[in-house]
Amino acid sequence: MSFYSFSHYKFFRRCSIAFAFSLTLVFVANSLTPQTQATPIQCNKDPYKQLNLILNLNGTVTRPNKPPESPPASDPNLNTLVLSKDLSINQSKGTWARIYLPRAALDRGYKLPLIVFFHGGGFIYLSAASTIFHEFCFNMAHNVHAVVASIEYRLAPEHRLPAAYDDAMEALHWIKTNQNDWLTEYVDYSNVFLMGSSAGGNIAYIAGLRAAAENDHRIPKIKGLILVQPFFSGTHMTNSERRLVNEPHLALCNNYALWELSLPVGVDRDHEYCNPTVGNGPARLKIIQRLGWWVLVTGCSGDPLVDRQVQLVRLMQRNGVRVVGHFTTGDYHGIQDTEPLKARELYGVMKTFISAIN
Ligand SMILES: *[C@@H]1O[C@H](CO)[C@@H](O)[C@H](O)[C@H]1NC(C)=O
Ligand SMILES: *[C@@H]1O[C@H](CO)[C@@H](O)[C@H](O)[C@H]1NC(C)=O
């Protein structure tokens, strides 16, 4: 085990027992190896076909095999550990938030941290109502002991980036001003985190950079970012992408097609939405450093994106950001959405992270 990412001794001391950070040297070696020119891989030239999407004549997109969705349950008489309800953010855009309130906070009237959560799905698929995310957020609210606001944002390719980032910023404004009692009574606004998994991790990151740069008093004060297997790319292939080129949970051709349909038309993957090492990205990290945010980045060696996640941790370190990398061996992209034990492990890591910086 190597303690890779500590820049703060006190933090190290406070959580050295409970919080195991492991980052095998293999990862580090990988990310340091120059990115050699690989033989270009042959992908289907039609990104819609590649992703099994149907582009209709009227310009809409049909997503076959829509995964199941779950309704919220807000009745306090229900015998449930966590209550949930949907609140509209902007009706004209179809954006809303599903709020998860642990029962214990309601019964005993105390305030909890707020986790603003952005779901994954390559910017193209899924919803805050999708059963996998509903269950993930329900269990997260209970296990991490936090209020969770899971944000429904607009999807590409109908709404290409930066639409999802704009929706994230609007959601933060909305959270600051919304008078719903679940937020006003039970949220500790000095303890707010932006979080996302996969494409949602990308949204939390870019929205976080924007919030930091704008220093906007209309959004809640952010304490940190929690980036679970964040979705990034670039025009050059990394070693882990080459090693896992056909990984069934995130094959490289699918990955490229997702970016092709979600980035603004005409830009390549070395755009700052997609590659955190280019453009204003590194300079904006300096602002996060000055604001004193904490960042948790998680990843695993079975995810083709792991080298990029390790690179992100190193980039933050070089810019003085207080970042914690939690990397595991094996596993795969999105494992916490399908394996409850892995989700539970992640909640434990998050809970320690949140309590250690308070
Ligand atoms: C567009 O076409 C699809 C498929 O034919 C159809 O289901 C959908 O209702 C249409 N949408 C609009 C806004 O016309
Ligand atoms: C909702 O979004 C529209 C379109 O961007 C914007 O003009 C409007 O001000 C927003 N509404 C609210 C209530 O913020």
From TrEMBL:
Swiss-Prot/TrEMBL keywords: Hydrolase, Signal
Listed GO MF terms: hydrolase activity
Every Alpha/beta hydrolase fold-3 domain range: 115-335
UniProt cross-references to PROSITE patterns, sorted A to Z: LIPASE_GDXG_HIS (PS01173)
- S-adenosyl-L-methionine as a keyword of this entry, yes or no, is no
User: Which Pfam families does the record cross-reference, listed alphabetically?
Assistant: Abhydrolase_3
Superkingdom of origin organism: Eukaryota
Name under which the protein is recorded? Alpha/beta hydrolase fold-3 domain-containing protein
